[in-house]
């Protein structure tokens, strides 16, 4: 079994224009694979403005010490290296959210006509974070499908701790029950450029990888 992700994310990628031109086709690929990467869905200046706001809020919320503004991060609660920050609806966040939802509307309606936004947060990972265990965010048996949208607020190369995903694992009951192991050779590493996003079925097996960079501020994606 390979120890690294070898499959290319390119095979699961579309340009932002496809969301408007062929939303049902994109939705069909998402149902099948459990993920879709969308290139350049946000203008870089919009993503960078949100990134600046996120880092300001993270510093402020950490200083306050109020856990209300943070979610639990599987595998690394209270270690101080991986933070799930609940976002305020600042002007920067509203601008980005409007662009995202206008672009994704057709795909989301194809998946579930009565869809609704349930969470708005930023996942921030500091250098030396060792990564997460492989997991799914929701049960493939008991929970409804949730579409998680990871938006890159800056370039996320391999050394900066991108999420690793296992295509089509959201429909594999044996994997979820632990009756077999994940095939690492089928995994994809979700490297992204600023303004890209990855849509993920919440039942898909995935994990945050180690942040091996020395770059500051922390690696950040909106989810």
From TrEMBL:
<dbReference type="Pfam" id="PF05721">
    <property type="entry name" value="PhyH"/>
</dbReference>
<dbReference type="InterPro" id="IPR008775">
    <property type="entry name" value="Phytyl_CoA_dOase-like"/>
</dbReference>
<protein>
    <recommendedName>
        <fullName>Phytanoyl-CoA dioxygenase</fullName>
    </recommendedName>
</protein>
<dbReference type="InterPro" id="IPR051961">
    <property type="entry name" value="Fungal_Metabolite_Diox"/>
</dbReference>
């Amino acid at each position: 079994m390979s120890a690294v992700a070898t499959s290319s994310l390119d095979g699961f990628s579309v340009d932002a224009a496809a969301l408007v031109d062929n939303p049902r086709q994109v939705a069909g690929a998402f149902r099948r694979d459990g993920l879709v990467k969308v290139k350049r869905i946000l203008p870089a200046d919009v993503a960078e403005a949100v990134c600046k706001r996120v880092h300001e809020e993270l510093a402020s919320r950490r200083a306050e010490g109020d856990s209300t503004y943070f979610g639990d991060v599987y595998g690394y609660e209270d270690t101080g290296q991986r933070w799930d920050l609940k976002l305020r609806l600042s002007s920067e966040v509203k601008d980005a959210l409007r662009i995202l939802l206008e672009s994704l509307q057709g795909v989301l309606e194809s998946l579930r006509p009565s869809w609704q936004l349930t969470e708005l947060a930023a996942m921030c990972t500091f250098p030396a974070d060792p990564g997460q265990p492989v997991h799914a965010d929701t049960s493939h048996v008991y929970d409804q499908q949730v579409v998680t949208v990871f938006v890159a607020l800056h370039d996320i190369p391999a050394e900066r701790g991108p999420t690793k995903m296992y295509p089509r694992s959201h429909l594999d009951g044996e994997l979820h029950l632990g009756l077999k192991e994940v095939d690492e050779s089928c995994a994809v590493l979700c490297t992204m450029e600023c303004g890209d996003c990855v849509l993920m079925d919440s039942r898909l097996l995935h994990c945050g990888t180690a942040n091996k960079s020395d770059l500051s501020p922390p690696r950040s994606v909106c989810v």
